[in-house]
Amino acid sequence: MLSIDGSFGEGGGQVIRTALALSCVTKTPIEIFSIRKGRKNPGLQPQHLASVRACAKIAKAEVQGGILGSTELKFMPGDLTSGDHEFDVAEEKGSAGSVSLVIQSILLPLLYCPGESQVTIKGGTQVPFSPPFDYLTNVWLPFLGILGVKAEAEIVKYGFYPKGGGEVRLKVKPVEKLQGINLLERGKLVSLSGISAVANLPEAIAQRQKQEAEKILSKENLVPQVETRQVNSVGAGTYFFLLAEFENSLAGFSSLGERGKPAEKVAQEACQGLLEFVETQAAVEKHLADQILPYLALAKGESSLTVSKITSHLLTNVGVVEKFLPVKVIVEGEIGKSGKVTISLRRE
C-alpha cells in the first residue's frame, strides 16, 4: 500500500484529488495521513468526501476513513466501471463545494473505463479557490482534447457560493492512449472573449463588469468581445471570465463577486490575471499547468511546456505523480516565477 502525506506541499485537497485519480488508474491501494493538517478546518470536507465517494464508485473501491473531518483515508481500488453516475457534493452536509474539483478527481479514471460514462454532479459551479465551470469547458477540457481526451460538459444550473445548488453533466469516452505535447511558445493572440454574468441580481452589474474590463484592456490595445448574461441559479452571484486564444494555446482568467465587492473590482481581478500572463512568454498559465500534469505523466512520449508561474500546487502535483508513475518531472525555474516543465520516463 502506497503511503502519502496529506500535508505534503500545499497540503490541501489537491493531494487527495490527484492521489485518488492515479490510485484508480494504476490500481494502487493508498493510505493518506495528515489530510489537510495545517488548514483551518483539517480533514476531509464535503467536496473532498464527494471526490472519495465518486472515485470509490467508479473503481469499486474499498474505503476506510471516508467520513467528514477524517484526517486519514485508506482507498483500495478494484476494476474501473463505466456507466451513468450521479454525485452530490452537499450529500453529507449542505455545501457549495466545488463541482469542478470533483470532476478533476474523476475524469482521469473515467478515461480508462471500458465504455462511455455520463455523470451528473451537483454542488457549486462558481465558488472561491476553484476553477469556474466556464474554465473547465473553455480551457481545461479543450486543452486535454489536444492530448486525446474525449469529454464534454454542460451546465444545467449554476451554483454560487454559499448556496451552491448547481448541476453539471459530464460525458466521457474511454481513451486509447494519451499523447504528449511539446508546447514552448503560445504564439500570437488570435482571439480574446469574455463572459460577464449575474444570477438573481440586476443586469447592470454585468454591464459594469464588462465596461471596466474594456476600459482596462483598451489601455493595452486589447479589445475583448464580452457577452453579458443572466444565468440560472438558486442563489445570487456574479462572475467575470476572460478566454484568451493563442495560435498554440489557451488561457482563462476569472473572478467572482461577493457581498460588498464592487463590480469593477471583479473585472479588475480577471484582467490582472490576463495581463500578468501576457507579460510572460509562457505557453501555459499557472493554474492549467498543475491541472494537466497527471495526464501528461500518463501520455505517450516526452512532454515539455513553459509555464507563466511555478506554484506550490504544481510542485505538489509533481511529488504525487512521481509516487505513482515511472516518470521524472523536471521543473526549471524558481517558485513564483516563470519556468519550464519536462516530463519523461524515469531511467533508473
Could you list some keywords that capture this structure?
Dihydrodipicolinate Reductase, domain 2, 28% strand, Ribosomal Protein S8, Chain: A, domain 1, UDP-n-acetylglucosamine1-carboxyvinyl-transferase, Chain, 348 residues, 3 domains, alpha/beta, single chain
Gist of the model:
By secondary structure, the protein is an alpha/beta fold. It is built from 8 helices and 16 strands.
Order of helices and strands: EHEHEEEHEHEEEEHEEEHHEHEE
CATH architecture of the largest domain: Alpha-beta prism
Largest beta-sheet characterization: 4 strands, mixed
- Uncertain regions: pLDDT < 50 for 5+ in a row? none
Level-1 CATH class name of the largest domain: Alpha Beta
Strand order in space, largest sheet: 1-2-4-3
Helical stretch tally: 8
Describe the global form.
globular
Domains, number: 3
Cα-based radius of gyration, to the nearest Å:
19 Å
The CATH homologous superfamily of the largest domain? RNA 3'-terminal phosphate cyclase domain
- Mean pLDDT across every amino acid position: 95
The beta-strand count equals 16
- Here the CATH topology of the largest domain equals UDP-n-acetylglucosamine1-carboxyvinyl-transferase, Chain
Question: Distance between termini?
Answer: 22 Å
Beta-strand percentage range: 25-35%
Q: How much helix is in the residues?
A: 25-40%
* Category by helix and strand content: alpha/beta
Architecture overview:
This protein is of the alpha/beta class. It has 3 domains: 2-176, Alpha-beta prism (UDP-n-acetylglucosamine1-carboxyvinyl-transferase, Chain); 189-276, RNA 3'-terminal phosphate cyclase, insert domain (Dihydrodipicolinate Reductase, domain 2), CATH 3.30.360.20; 281-348, Ribosomal Protein S8, Chain: A, domain 1 (2-Layer Sandwich). It has 8 helices and 16 strands. The strands form 4 sheets. The chain has a 4-stranded mixed sheet, covered by helices on one side. Strands 5-6-8-7 form a 4-stranded mixed sheet, covered by helices on one side. A hairpin with a 6-residue loop joins strand 15 (327-332) and strand 16 (339-345). Helix 1 (13-26) runs parallel beside helix 2 (46-58). It is globular.
